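Show me a record, fold above all:
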Amino acid sequence: MDASALAVFVEAASAGSLAGAARRLRLEPLAASRALAALERQVGVRLMQRSTRSLSLTAEGEQFLPHARALLEAESAALASVNQQPDQATGLLRVTSSAAFGRKLLVPFITRFMRRHPALKVDVLMSDRVVDLIDEGLDLAIRLARLQDSSLIARRLGDSPRVLVASPDYLAGREPPRAIEDLERHDCVLATGQTHWQLRAGDRLVSQRIAGRFTANTVEGIHEACVGGLGIALLSEWEVKDAIADGTMVRVPLAHAAPEPLPIWAVYPTRQLLPAKVRLFVDELQRQLAAP
């Protein structure tokens, strides 16, 4: 079965159009259309319904899609097994993360990683929504969260320490919180829908109710509102270290308590035939996160 035709089918399903698949694969649109038609002739069924405005999988296409991905993964693994440079990442790697983590940590890491792997291309999707890896055709997600039950495969890369912070303007003339329960008397800058913060007090994990006048659905929004004096925020240290250094934020320490770190996970759509580019990327990212 022609791997290039399989790639067109998989990319078209991910991109939602043959034109999008052609751009990703650096093909002429006509060549992509011919490859898909040839694949449909080979399997003997129509895999996609196409019109001038839309493209959708048929029922047979839905059934065939995971097998097509598996065939492409098998080809990639077979080529890697005889590669004269098994420690070189090649091909296109698609990875997603939150916007803040991507901007602050992931993209700087990727620039260094790509210098060591010149045959690698990387496409990064930065979004604060939980992206469906299979629907988006992604190889990997980096998530900072307590994972829910999922059919996806996850590997813990480390922890993201967090800190309570506020602007000097907010704290001016206010008694800062000293204990966990003091947070109830303060405005807190919250993620949309958030009602509690998790804090560690000795060997106890305390879920503290908090409230405030401002909420946002992104870390950047919370950060900027905190700098603007709207309250105390709970943010990762990597997000606020520059602001603390330049004085636009200050730490708000609590006696005998500290925010619970968030675990950092690498999440894959499947454990089978993990491509070398993903394995090398995740191994190096884990080492980087563990470094001081």
About this structure: Residues 59-81 form the longest helix (23 residues). The chain has a mean pLDDT of 88. Residues 196 and 209 are 4 Å apart (CA to CA). The domain at 3-81 is CATH 1.10.10.10 (Arc Repressor Mutant, subunit A).
